[in-house]
């Protein structure tokens, strides 16, 4: 199976990436000629990582009947100083929001995503030290 996108130049440092499922704008920092009209390429990598795992977790929580009111994923990545600048350490922080958490099932869902299902996570492991953290925030719905 192959995946294909097409990137089109929209002037200055602005580009549109089009995939069969939709499109996204990519732009550079203002100090290098960008206009702030899109995500930067490295931020898109972190977004892909979070999105891949989030979809796994949402699906698994539903299957396990361990729903939560909401959840968020924050990705904190260290960028090396030397060119080419790459991420060498990446921390994926899962925060589940709700009450009466089924913590064992939630943690199983996260671990299945991290260790088995999320292909983007596996790609990141090829070049970075990846760690995870799971937090719970009690809120009455």
Automatic annotation (TrEMBL):
Matching Pfam families: OsmC
Annotated EC: 1.11.1.-
Gene3D superfamilies tied to this protein: 3.30.300.20
Keyword annotations: Oxidoreductase, Peroxidase
GO MF annotations, alphabetized: peroxidase activity
Keyword Oxidoreductase: yes
SUPFAM superfamilies: OsmC-like
Entry keyword Oxidoreductase: yes
InterPro entries per UniProt: KH_dom-like_a/b (IPR015946), OsmC/Ohr_fam (IPR003718), OsmC/Ohrsf (IPR036102)
Protein name: OsmC family protein
Organism lineage: Bacteria, Pseudomonadati, Bacteroidota, Flavobacteriia, Flavobacteriales
